[in-house]
Amino acid sequence: MPTAILTGQPVPGSSLEGDLRSLGFDVRPASDAGETGTLLAAVPANERVAVVDARFVGHVHALRLGLTDPRFAASAIPGAVSVQPEARRALTRAVTRESVAAGNAAAAPEDLVERLGATLEADDVSVYRPDLGTLVAAVPADPQERNGVRQAVLAVDDEAVRLRSAVKARDGFFTTYCISPYSRYLARWCARRGLTPNQVTTASLITALIAAGCAATGTRVGFVAAGLLLMFSFVLDCTDGQLARYSLQYSTLGAWLDATFDRAKEYAYYAGLALGAARGGDDVWALALAAMILQTCRHVVDFSFNEANHDATANTSPTAALSGKLDSVGWTVWVRRMIVLPIGERWAMIAVLTALTTPRITFYALLVGCAFAATYTTAGRVLRSLTRKARRTDRAARALADLTDSGPLAEYLTRFAGRLSRVAPAVVALFAGAVVVTSAALAPYGSWLPVLGALVYVLLSPAALLRPLKGALDWLVPPFFRAAEYLTVLALAFNADVNGALPAAFGLVAAVAYHHYDTVYRIRGNAGAPPHWLVRAIGGHEGRTLLVTVLAALLTAAQFAVALTAVAVAVALLVLVESIRFWVSSGAPAVHDEGEPA
Questions:
Q1: Mean of pLDDT values over 138-150
Q2: What contacts 258, CB < 8 A, 6 or more positions away?
Q3: How far apart are CA 390 and CA 313, in angstroms?
Q4: 243 burial class (0-12, 13-18, 19+ CB within 10 angstroms)?
Q5: Alpha carbon distances (Å) from 55 to 11, 120, 138, 147
Q6: Could you give the dihedral angle defined by the CA atoms of residues 537, 540, 543 and 547, in that order, rounded to the nearest 10 degrees?
Q7: How does pLDDT run across 375-407, given as a tens digit for each residue?
Q8: In whole angstroms, what is the distance from residue 369 CA to residue 366 CA?
Q9: Is residue 510's pLDDT more than 90?
Q10: Sheet of strand 3-7: strand arrangement
């Protein structure tokens, strides 16, 4: 149980102690800095501890935001400071200094908590100070001021504020106006019944998998049920994040579940649609795989661009300025968010088309919509990159290099590929990808031409490693490599023209895509890329691309389908085991993404 040390003289009639207990704190009073230090030393080292001024007046939710958020080692609001175990030593040092200063009569005892927060920051501890908005948190100096603060507290309904803040600040039109107005109340209902965000996330996954199973029946009733269940799954998907924000239940496991289950749900649904279509005699596995590839590459573009620029210095451009002006006009904000087809609009479109049309039409609409969205967003980002004068950091270059997923072949060939450093890496990646994809698409099955194309691809793959990826368009290198690998697998499986080849290719791309998503969220959590042994074990993008072309040249079409399945299972087992080990470990970052809707 976390401990709250209440410092100073108790205030008659104050509800502070009860408020702290309602938040789960064991409350202990302390009259001065010396007694605070004694109580602090008695708190177990693995527990959170807060120091709160006994004169504090404010909303309970203000205390919740300032004292219980698990994402930050230290946090503070006026009159209260809280630290997790990793910042306990710094707080202990700060309290000791205050105790010594109080013994020398060098500090006023009533300002203890505020000085502790300042001392922590002076000790290079990052202290999170939440934006309270209309919530009240204050330490009144006299009874008259106290009455005024109490009136301010009564004037604001902190439960209404809590419900509003549970909704993601930046979201799509459909989610904002069609889901969040009621899903926030579902989140509160879950919180009051002790449900956790992870349980809601798991329920959302199960619902989506049932929807995929309904779609796989291939019947009209099944398609209608699938569409309805997919939308309910999305409601639960919104609810889990709102529940996490409403109750501040952030966790490392929750970060992993939330980051990966959205993709698992969507891609499982694609597979269900493809199975349902096959039952009706329509083979749409190529369309399902193309939709997964397009959506994954869209995300890689988003991730690469954001990682390349989020901490760049002198990060300005006329294009970005124009975008900012458009965002100041209300209706353009929603139009621009809708045309990028975020998850809410995308899933609504998929659900409606599933219920009313056929899987083929659903995939055609999905591919057209996502292709337009990808063209719009990528073109805008290219323009921004070419017009801005930004200096990218070493961290950004490292993140882009990790996102390329280069394996042992690319690393070995760097010693012989020095001349490639003279050419822009994005140009090399685009050319190499075009060579291997074109050869795989145009050559008949069994030809060695795709192998030659893959060899060219492998020989050019070191371009991403020869110099730091700090160029204006270097963020395009990871998506070019992703598209090349995925499309090569699609082309070879399509040309095999045998039952099972495209579903096996779907499984392989899904396994590799999971690895790439896992890499992204580790980087976002400042935990770095997956371990080097894993990247080497699964071959890197260049090794896997060469492998599938060699298998297609050596094996019959039926054998190739089996081989793709075996490779997919091997990759999936390796990346899943390592990913699960990492995300459930105590050292995994508590990622909570409030970025653009995916």
A1: 91
A2: 197, 201, 240, 241, 593
A3: 6
A4: buried
A5: 6, 21, 8, 12
A6: 70
A7: 999 998 998 888 877 778 888 999 999 999 999
A8: 5
A9: yes
A10: 26-30, 3-7, 49-53, 80-83, 74-77, 127-128
At 595, the pLDDT band (50, 70, 90 cuts) reads: very low
Residue pLDDT, tens place only, 48-107: 999 999 999 999 999 999 999 988 999 999 999 999 999 999 999 998 888 887 665 544
For 407-424, b/e burial (b = at least 16 CB within 10 A) is bebbbebbeebeebeeeb
Sequence-distant (6+) residues with CB within 8 A of 243 are 166, 187, 190, 191, 195, 196, 197, 200, 249
- Is 597 a residue whose pLDDT tops 50? no
Single-letter residue type at 178 = C
d(CA 582, CA 334): 37
Query: With the C-alpha atoms ordered 399, 508, 408, 415, is the resulting torsion angle positive or negative?
Result: negative
CA distances from 558 to 93, 421, 493, 564 (A): 69, 41, 10, 10
Residue position matching structure tokens 């012989």:
416
Decide: 179 and 228 in contact? Cβ < 8 Å. no
In the chain, the amino acid numbered 243 is L
Taking alpha carbons only, the member of 347, 401, 371 closest to residue 290 is 371
pLDDT of residue 598: 46
pTM listed for this prediction: 0.88
How many Å separate Cα 530 from the centre of its chain? 16
Lowest-confidence segment of 70-74, 96-100, 340-344, 479-483 by average pLDDT: 96-100
Q: DSSP state, 105?
A: T
Report the residue count for the chain: 598
Handedness of CA 561, 565, 566, 567 (dihedral sign): positive
Residue at token pair 């994005």: 426
8: left (phi over 0), alpha (psi -120 to 50) or beta: left
- CA pair distance 332, 318, nearest whole angstrom: 18
In angstroms, rounded to a whole number, what is the distance separating the alpha carbons of residues 68 and 83? Answer: 9
Query: What mean pLDDT value characterizes the chain?
Result: 90
Residue 353: φ, ψ to 5°? -65, -35
Beta strands (DSSP E) in 105-182 are: 127-128, 137-138
- Smallest Cα–Cα separation from 78: which of 95, 66, 87? 66
**Side chain identity at residue 559, one-letter code:** Q
Contacts 24+ apart (CB under 8 A), 65-70: 65/130, 65/132, 65/135, 65/248, 66/129, 66/130, 66/137, 67/4, 67/23, 67/25, 68/2, 68/23, 68/24, 68/248, 69/128, 69/130, 69/248, 69/250, 70/248, 70/249, 70/250, 70/251, 70/590
